[in-house]
Specification:
Layout (H helix, E strand, L loop, with lengths): L9 E4 L9 H14 L7 H5 L6 H11 L7 H15 L10 H10 L3 E5 L4 H11 L7 E3 L12 H10 L6 E5 L2 H10 L2 E5 L16 E3 L5 H5 L1
Parallel strand pairs: 1-2, 1-4, 2-3, 4-5, 5-6
Catalytic activity: 2-phosphoglycolate + H2O = glycolate + phosphate
Family: Belongs to the HAD-like hydrolase superfamily. CbbY/CbbZ/Gph/YieH family.
Cofactor: Mg(2+)
């Protein structure tokens, strides 16, 4: 596909549940935090349904699940961050086809960026460990702008920073947050079925395309 034929110049990616499967590390950190607070742990399958709105919301959902006093959040937050930082890279892996597709899009001249609700301190170590940092012109963590997805503001900020209009930008993610943010920003959006999305089918959020595999992006962009 030539540059003149392309519909997009910039591709924005979510991180957790889109590029990487981080549920095991997040679940471990959540359960270690619950244990430190004297609370019963939760199954990883349940914790997966809590992922997507950032670390603070993840911690709050864990406390609510165990019917703990919400005021425990202030104590739980630094404990969780300590545990997650310790296990951040343990067994970390990208989903099938991610590295190859990112490299292919990079070689074709697409601008690529990450827009995630994950705290920014964790993003760079993950990208560096996976060897894909150079694929991205920009990455925005959940604390890089005043509001998180599903607000369109992080996506619009990325467009502004990279000099690409929302109409020429594609968002790729696994959750309702990604779809809502993209639509509000005036972007097309791909919903991936293999991610988290609180245990609900991504098709229910009505993205423009629903893909079961990351490599299906090639048919749309290459």
């Amino acid at each position: 596909m030539s540059h003149a034929e392309r519909a997009f110049d910039l591709v924005l990616f979510d991180l957790d549940g889109t590029l990487i499967d981080s549920a095991a590390q997040l679940a471990l950190a959540v359960n270690l935090t619950l244990a430190d607070l004297g609370l019963a742990q939760a199954d990883e399958a349940v914790i997966r349904t809590w992922v997507g709105n950032g670390a603070d919301k993840l911690i709050q959902r864990a406390l609510a699940y165990r019917e703990a006093d919400p005021e425990l959040f202030t104590k739980a937050r630094p404990i969780f961050f300590q545990h997650y930082n310790a296990c951040l890279l343990q067994g970390l892996a990208m989903y099938d086809g991610v590295a190859q597709s990112l490299r292919r899009l990079q070689s074709l001249g697409y601008k690529q960026a990450i827009v995630t609700n994950k705290p920014s301190d964790f993003v760079a170590p993950i990208l560096d460990a996976l060897g894909i940092s150079d694929c991205f012109a920009l990455w925005l963590g959940g604390n890089c702008v005043p509001v998180k997805k599903p607000s369109p503001e992080p996506l619009l900020h990325a467009c502004q920073e990279l000099g690409v209009s929302p109409a020429r930008t594609l968002m790729v993610g696994d959750s309702e947050n990604d779809v809502l943010a993209a639509k509000a920003a005036g972007m097309k959006v791909v919903g991936l079925t293999y991610g988290y999305n609180y245990g609900r089918p991504i098709a229910d959020s009505h993205p423009d395309w629903v893909f079961e595999q990351f490599a299906q992006l090639d048919a749309l962009l290459v």
